[in-house]
Design a protein that fits this description.
169 residues, mainly alpha, 0% strand, ATP_synth_B-like_membr_sf, 92% helix
Length: 169
């Protein structure tokens, strides 16, 4: 008998053993395996749904972050512009104040110079009058005592010099 012609009683025992194993698998193991596979499938699907929800939430948070970042950039630009405008206003105010103070100082200095010039001119005229009187007295050989007359001559001379200098200017 060979493998192609088995003995009937061995074939019956093999079929009964096969049926017992098949029945055991079908009755006990396949439902457990199916149940475990279904649980795994549900867990995987739940995890996928959860990861999609987390991913969607992450995208939403990222979009909110980008919006806040953009708003913060706009606010920073506005603050920088306001500071630059305020700085330029302060610079203009300081320049105007400096210009005003400079003008005041220049006007004060000019007034002081004019006053000093007038005082110096008066002192020089007195000195010139005194020196001219002394010189005229030396030339004549006797002192000149008529101060009123000497002053009139000197004033006429200075008036002539003033008109000449005004005409040249």
């Amino acid at each position: 008998m060979g493998p192609l012609e088995p003995k009937v009683n061995e074939l019956i025992v093999a079929v009964i053993c096969f049926a017992a194993v098949f029945f055991t698998f079908a009755k006990f193991l396949v439902p457990r395996i199916t149940k475990t596979l279904e649980a795994r499938q549900e867990a995987i699907e739940g995890t996928i749904e959860q990861s999609e929800a987390v991913h969607a939430e992450a995208r939403q948070i990222h979009a909110e972050y980008q919006a806040e970042l953009s708003e913060a950039r706009h606010e920073a630009a506005r603050i920088r512009q306001a500071a630059a405008d305020e700085g330029s206003l302060l610079i203009q105010e300081v320049r105007a104040e400096g210009q005003r103070r400079r003008d005041e100082l220049v006007a004060s200095a000019r007034a002081q110079l004019e006053a000093d010039r007038i005082v110096a001119e008066a002192a020089l005229r007195e000195d010139v009058l005194r020196l001219a009187t002394d010189l005229a007295g030396r030339i004549l050989g006797e002192p000149i005592t008529d101060e009123r007359r000497a002053r009139e001559i000197a004033d006429a001379f200075f008036a002539e010099v003033d008109t000449d200098s005004a005409a040249k200017a």
